[in-house]
Amino acid sequence: MIGFDIGGTKCAVCVGRCDKDRIVIENKMVMPTNCNISPYDMIECMCKAAEEMTDDFSSIGISCGGPLDSDKGVIMSPPNLPGWDNVTIVDYLKNKYGGKVKLQNDANACAVAEWKFGAGIGSENMIFLTFGTGLGAGLILNSQLYCGTNDMAGEVGHIRLCKSGPVGYGKEGSFEGFCSGGGIAQLGKMYAEERLLKGEVVSFCQSRANLDEITAKTIAQKAYEGFEDAVGIYKLCGERLGQGLSILVDILNPDKIVIGSIYQRAEKLLVQSMKSVLESECLPASLAACSIVPAALGDSIGDYAAISVAALNE
To answer: Contact at 8 Å (CB) between 302 and 12?
Structure first.
């Protein structure tokens, strides 16, 4: 099986196979995404990489950021891929190689990977949250990937949690605004600017000239060192995470929620405040039936995701 993982900065081409409950990546090539050439020229670059690694093109999985139409196999103008407008990538690869080809939203592809080969093994109703640069979700419902009417299911980052707050997904106070790398950085900047104007010391920012250097990572580093202001930022993020998750738990009644990226690295900073809100907000029976765990596939999840799309299509 071949996996194409298409991103705004880089693309990866993987060759892999399924071995019981795990994916084995046999070979991989990474290349920068060149938006100065046509999308089809970029696809050809990936094809050449794949041809150097294998001669078996019977099954290809493609993971790419949306918007896209997974049924028709069309990439439709993702914001991180300028010029990729209505790219019929599935038909292109089918005509070229004659095998099975499937396109899937990257959050959905990651959900399938964690469900089949990671922290969600054995789950029938699972939610996967990206919790990285942004916040998206992939939904496994009744042991099937659920994409919605027009591939827009799982856009949980757009849920507004309060009237004001950091901006995410173009909406102030949104789930993504509070629970993403960019959102945590915004929370840190808001806090630091207010305190620095009062002449107070901020552990993760020395002066207002350094405000743009604040990141989720720099705040987490100070939080792990025990600085209360940094701990407080992650406590607030955890509370909003609990608030957002409580909506999903009550509506979808999952047996497992798998959270990636920042949650994997900062679970200790988030889990206590997250659980406190969940316990106060959720229906007790629904919460008792659901376990919330960090993703298991780590930094290789993009590779596993693309191969998982191919595996699910076999």
So the answer is: yes
Q: Which of 314, 311, 271, 278 is nearest to 63 (CA)?
A: 311
Tell me the mean pLDDT in the region 249-277.
96
Q: Is the pLDDT of residue 35 over 90?
A: no
What does the pLDDT look like over 161-207, one tens digit per residue?
Answer: 999 999 988 899 999 999 999 999 999 999 999 999 999 999 999 99
Is residue 30 within 8 Å of 306, Cβ to Cβ? Answer: no
Residue-level pLDDT at 205: 94
Burial class (CB in 10 A: 0-12, 13-18, 19+), 171: middle
For residues 196 and 65, what is the distance between their CA atoms, to the nearest angstrom? 38
- Assess contact for 145 and 312: CB atoms under 8 A: yes
Where are the strands (E) in the chain, listed by range? 2-6, 10-19, 22-32, 59-64, 68-69, 74-75, 100-105, 126-129, 137-141, 144-146, 167-168, 171-172, 256-259, 291-294
Tokens standing for residue 43: 């696809």
Number of DSSP helices (H) and strands (E) in the chain, helices first: 10, 14
Q: Under a CB-based contact definition with an 8 Å cutoff, are residues 60 and 109 in contact?
A: no
| pLDDT score of 45 | 96
Sign of CA dihedral 166, 172, 176, 182: negative
The Cα-based distances of 157 to 109, 141, 160 in angstroms read: 17, 19, 8
Phi, psi of 146, rounded to the nearest 5 degrees: -105, 120
Rounded distance between C-alpha atoms, residue 57 and residue 71, angstroms = 20
